[in-house]
Amino acid sequence: xxxxxxxxxxxxxxxxxxxxxxxxxxxxxxxxxxxxxxxxxxxxxxxxxxxxxxxxxxxxxxxxxxxxxxxxxxxxxxxxxxxxxxxxxxxxxxxxxxxxxxxxxxxxxxxxxxxxxxxxxxxxxxxxxxxxxxxxxxxxxx
Length: 142
What we know:
Layout: H1 13-26, H2 31-48, E1 54-64, H3 70-80, E2 85-92, E3 97-107, H4 108-119, E4 124-132
Antiparallel strand pairs: 1-3, 1-4, 2-3
């Protein structure tokens, strides 16, 4: 474990009160761990935005499967990028709507391009990509 460094931070009292309420609700034992997690999150996001960085990610899509040719277009794009798509999960939300979660792996730029292609298909109601660069920000479990 590396050596700890202490820092001082000036924060507006109302902002700090809101932060304290949030971290208590989330179960943090102290502010320090919450601050460390915020810093790790920003580092991981910055790292995963580098175009040639190897990342893993999830792409969540919500769509109406009755839309003409939509499921075929989604499937074809996945097959066209089979080296990036690791796995998929398909859930029927109701008679019309489906949720699809794709596990993606590859260079950040390629993963983002595939996500953009899928999200921009006419008929996709919502899509969201979350990426992480696995080696940064890993914290040991206690």
